[in-house]
């Protein structure tokens, strides 16, 4: 997919959302061009989190371009590419939230096993034995 912004614009990120973006990851490159013929990679081997249907932001060094191209590399289920929303932005002038940045999990599930017995005393206080 190639997007023509009609004039040279300064970009430093794209915001993308994906069909079934909460169930699978999607891989892609982002390329920019001043003339629609010569392309420069802004994002190489980008990958969505697979955890969100909302926009995810992918930052890159500030560049001026008229065209932005999305080069799909498939998703974790198939070779298909299903972008539901695409926005080229400059976070210095456009709204950008840290909530849009892909995040690594910080909480990991752990198994908790009981090591003592919990009993309710007559006074309704919880007592650990």
Overview features:
129 residues; mainly beta; two-stranded antiparallel ribbon; FA58C
Brief sketch in words of this structure:
The protein is mostly beta strands and 129 residues long.
Explain what this protein looks like in three dimensions.
This protein is an all-beta fold. It has a single domain (2-98), classed as Jelly Rolls (Sandwich), CATH 2.60.120.260. The chain is 0% helix and 51% strand. The protein has strands at 2-18, 26-33, 40-47, 56-75, 83-89, 118-120, 126-128. The strands form two sheets. Strands 3-2-4-1-5 form a five-stranded antiparallel beta sheet, with no helix packed on it. Strands 6-7 form a two-stranded antiparallel sheet. It is elongated and about 70 Å long. The protein starts with a strand and ends with a strand.
- Number of β-strand runs: 7
Question: What proportion of the residues form beta strands (DSSP E)?
Answer: over 45%
What is the structural class?
mainly beta
Q: What general form does the structure show?
A: elongated
Distance between the termini: 65 Å
Order of helices and strands: EEEEEEE
CATH architecture: Sandwich
CATH-assigned homologous superfamily:
Galactose-binding domain-like
State the helix count.
0
Count of distinct structural domains: 1
Show unreliable segments. none
Q: What is the CATH domain class? A: Mainly Beta
Summarize the main sheet: 5 strands, antiparallel
Strand order, biggest sheet? Answer: 3-2-4-1-5
Query: Averaged pLDDT, please?
Result: 86
CATH fold-level name: Jelly Rolls
Helix content: under 10%
Q: Which value, in Å, is the CA radius of gyration? A: 23 Å
Oligomer: single chain
EC number: 4.2.2.3
Domain F5/8 type C: 1-89
Protein name: Alginate lyase
Organism: Vibrio maritimus
